[in-house]
Amino acid sequence: MYILNKILNYKRKTLDQSLKDVMKSKNRMISGKFSPIVFGMEYEEVKYTSIDNKTLYGWLIKRNEDKNNTIILVHGRNNNRIFCLKFLQIFLDIDSEKKYNIFIPDLRNSGKSDESKTAFGYFFAKDVYSTMKMLNQRFGLDNFILYGFSQGAMGVAIAQSLYRDKLKEDGIKIEKMILDSPISNIKKIILYHARIKNIKIPKIFLLPAFLTLNKIVENNLDNLKLSSLLGFVPTLIIQSQKDRVTPFKIVEKEYNDLQDDKKKETRFKAFRKGQHVRIYLEYKEEYTQTIKKFLESEKI
After folding, report:
1. Residue 30 and residue 136: Cα distance in Å, rounded?
2. CA-CA distance, 141 to 131, in Å (whole number)?
3. Torsion angle of the four alpha carbons 118, 212, 194, 84, in this order, in degrees rounded to the nearest 10
4. Does domain 2-295 have CATH number 3.40.50.1820?
5. What residue spans define the domains of the chain?
6. How many alpha carbons lie under 13 Å from residue 73 in its C-beta half-sphere?
7. pLDDT tens for residues 188-225?
């Protein structure tokens, strides 16, 4: 099925391709950002394996050997760890005491990591969980803030929900989550993008694709939405009103559909402008302060 193939498969974006893109960029916040060294951050490359045997790679930035708190920056579809580099500036600006270590992975089908299906973030969740487990076992880190973008944000939300019991058994805590331009409801996003010249494909034609996708995601499709996944970990949702990839109305509705008790754990910050996952480039100072206030548990 064409639609299902588009959902599950896309060409992996290699690090070389991303490096060429940043060399071409005229945006000073992106251009020339090739590794954490650009930000004065020493790092080591880590190779590891996901729980379903995919080979993954990432950069570990140990900013403070005495600190256990670690932020994991999780890129989205058609991207890799190079995308996340510009966000390191945020932590230079707000974390002068170096309270947070940072890990930036290439999830499956990204960068140097193995090619694979992704299912709109469902399999990304396996990599997010595997990353936390690896950092715990290999480096003794057990307290995490998950910071995801687009499909990576959905992977983050799924991981904290789907692997909650396993994380508890492993002695691993997800302290907070930040979701920038998230895929907020997989079924609605598929329906939104399943258009030909702005004419919606009737839902009945998508039914076979949904049935097959539901089997692939282990019969969890109806629950792969933020209103079902959130509410257990303090979470900040960041969204642009101009986003055409993950439309504002879909994200806003998911937030509004959260039960009142779950809303107490969730914050929603809307920005008027900004392309998909590029809000930071439009609102550097306000975006940075939003992250700072959330991490410090201040009112946003």
Report:
1. 31
2. 11
3. -10
4. yes
5. 2-295
6. 24
7. 999 888 775 455 666 667 888 899 999 999 999 999 99
